[in-house]
Specification:
GO terms for molecular function: alpha-amylase activity; isomerase activity. Pfam families: Alpha-amylase. One of its GO terms (biological process) is oligosaccharide catabolic process. About 25% of the residues lie in helices and about 15% in strands. It has an eight-stranded parallel sheet, covered by helices on one side. A five-stranded antiparallel sheet has the order 12-13-14-18-16, with helices on one face. A three-stranded antiparallel sheet has the order 4-6-5, with no helix packed on it. Helix 6 packs parallel to helix 7. The protein folds into three domains: about 375 residues, Glycosidases (TIM Barrel, Alpha-Beta Barrel); about 55 residues, Alpha-Beta Complex (Oligo-1,6-glucosidase, domain 2), CATH 3.90.400; about 60 residues, Immunoglobulin-like (Sandwich). It has 15 helices and 18 strands. The protein is an alpha/beta fold. The protein binds 1-deoxynojirimycin.
Length: about 550
């Protein structure tokens, strides 16, 4: 491996595999490792450098696998440890690296540690946060923290030796928070990392990396009203999040990663108040990269694109880390839909905000056009780009799922006011004209989330031979990206018009028009790739081009 190859993560295109919804190999209506293995050639043809697989560990699925019961095994619905190893080897043979998802803030309530805690085995409850309740009879939660999914962040134990005690869960009740002041918790996770690194895994995405360590004494937060969404807020600090003590944990993790050749890498999911706070996670002895989410919160406006790009690059550069670009993921509204309504003049308030942009009917063709243009911007920028499965097919959010089909705990915990994240997690359409669109080998399989009846045109097969399809746009962009942009140097903005964000990097330029009227392209430039067919001398609205 050359030195350059060991820095693959600084420029990679990483494809996010939401395994439940990627491809079903065994016909039970749930995606699995067998299905993913069968589609690796599709990913190789797409041209991605790595895949990040959402949690695949044994789990009661209180939060789609982010409630882990055993960190060293595979959920039977997804396959076996042997399948996982085969997948890792096959991906590597195709030149695709494998990144897993580690969930250190909380376990499942079925994890053996939590069961031992509930049984009051000696020393077991200290690994979590158990407290007596407040009030004369202890019937109120110990503090005012709210769950990110809605409701109090505390649940009272209703039977057994700990009856009457409360335990902390910043997410669902089935996700008790670990006590990261406990040395056994720290040692256990370093061991879990090594378990997977020894099996050839190239890195980890760290779930709620800004969680884990809480302020001593678990004091009340300042503003009780704002708390359900506090993880996502851009203002203010809260005793549950982004505590300085968490950095010591990552210094330990970095030393585990450095024991391997090539070095294994980390990417933090950390929703912190500012890029400056985020940069603290990326200091040289901590994590390698972190998602920078302002890109997926930016409205479709050139001025915002310029601003979030500049902010992301300069804050990452302040600690010598590469920037990262995310247009969507399994927690947020799909890009097509986000761009299919009127655009606000500010960053979208919360990344998990969905269905709250009023009753405006989405214009999906418009949203898709903008999403295609945004992809070209994303893939022209320096650093790492993340592609969430289905973005390459131009899928939109499914906003009209029937209530009884919804799986996201947010729906119940919010008292049925927040529809949650199921609409961006619908099983992928691979081929055919009706559900399950080749997702499952059994046409009669009941899928874990239903697909819409209008996705025939969006399947991978339907797009495969259409030169104008979104799939072929992504393929072309990923093919051209190394040639045009890798090692191309810093972003240099070109003044064109308020509604145009245009930048050069080396000999290539990327232009995007977010306005209503067309603009002239520079004389003498050649269009290497355009997000819409037929772009030549002028750049139409909601279109991007790569020029050379
Ligand atoms: C962030 C994950 O992306 C999300 O899906 C999950 O619900 C929470 N962390 C809790 O683990």
């Amino acid at each position: 491996m050359t030195a350059e190859e060991s820095y693959w993560w600084q420029t990679a295109v990483v494809y996010q595999v939401y395994i439940r919804s990627f491809a079903d190999g065994d016909g039970d209506g749930v995606g699995d490792i067998q299905g993913l293995r069968a589609r690796l050639p599709y990913l190789a043809q797409l041209g991605v450098d790595a895949i990040w697989i959402n949690p695949w560990y044994p789990s009661p699925m209180a939060d789609a696998g982010y409630d882990v019961a055993d960190y060293r095994d595979i959920d039977p619905a997804y396959g076996t440890l042997e399948d996982a190893q085969t997948l890792i080897a096959e991906a590597h043979a195709l030149g695709i690296r494998v990144i897993l998802d580690i969930v250190p803030n909380h376990t499942s309530d079925r994890h053996e540690w939590f069961r031992a805690a509930l049984a009051d085995e000696p020393g077991a409850r200290q690994r979590y946060h158990f407290r007596p309740g407040a009030g004369a009879d202890g019937s109120s939660p110990p503090n005012n923290w709210q769950s990110v999914f809605g409701g109090p962040a505390w649940t009272r134990v209703d039977s057994g030796p700990l009856k009457g005690q409360w335990y902390l869960h910043l997410f669902a009740p089935g996700q008790p928070d670990l006590n990261w002041d406990h040395p056994e918790v720290r040692a256990e996770f370093e061991d879990i990392l090594a378990f997977w690194f020894d099996r050839g895994v190239d890195g980890f995405r760290i779930d709620v990396a800004h969680g884990l360590v809480k302020a001593a004494g678990l004091p009340d937060g300042a503003d009780a009203d704002a708390e359900p969404q506090v993880m996502l807020h851009t203002e203010g600090r809260h005793p549950a999040w982004d505590q300085d003590g968490v950095h010591e944990v990552y210094r330990g993790w970095r030393s585990v990663a450095e024991r391997y050749t090539p070095e294994r890498i980390f990417i933090a999911e950390a929703w912190v108040p500012s890029n400056e706070r985020l940069a603290r996670y990326l200091r040289p002895d901590e994590l390698h990269t972190a998602f920078q989410f302002d890109f997926l919160r930016a409205p479709w406006r050139a001025e915002w694109l310029r601003k979030v790009v500049d902010d992301a690059i300069s804050s990452a550069a302040s600690v010598g880390a590469p920037p990262t670009w995310v247009l969507s993921n399994h927690d947020v509204t799909r890009t097509v839909t986000r761009f299919s309504r009127s655009q606000p003049a500010h960053l979208v308030d919360t990344a998990w905000e969905r269905g709250r942009w009023g009753e405006e009917v989405p214009d999906h063709p418009l949203g898709r056009r903008r999403a295609r243009a945004a992809a070209l911007v994303q893939l022209a920028l320096p650093g790492t780009a993340y592609v969430y499965q289905g973005e390459e097919l131009g899928l939109e959010e499914i906003e009209d799922l029937p209530a009884e089909a919804r799986q996201d705990p947010t729906w119940v915990q919010s008292g049925f006011t927040d529809v949650g994240r199921d609409g961006c997690r619908i099983p992928l359409p691979w081929n055919g004209t009706e559900p399950p669109y080749g997702f499952s080998p059994d046409p009669g399989a009941g899928l874990w989330l239903p697909q819409p009846w209008h996705w025939a045109q969006r399947s991978a097969e339907a797009q495969d031979h259409d030169p104008e399809s979104t799939l072929n746009l992504y393929r072309a962009a990923l093919r051209l990206r190394p040639e045009l942009w890798s090692g191309a140097g810093p972003v240099e903005w070109i003044e064109v018009a308020p509604d145009v964000a245009a930048f050069g990097r080396g000999d290539a330029q990327c232009w995007v028009n977010t306005g209503d009227s067309e603009v002239s392209l520079p004389a003498g430039a050649t269009v290497a790739l355009a997000s819409e067919p037929g772009v030549d001398r002028v750049l139409p609205p909601d279109t991007a081009v790569w020029l050379r």
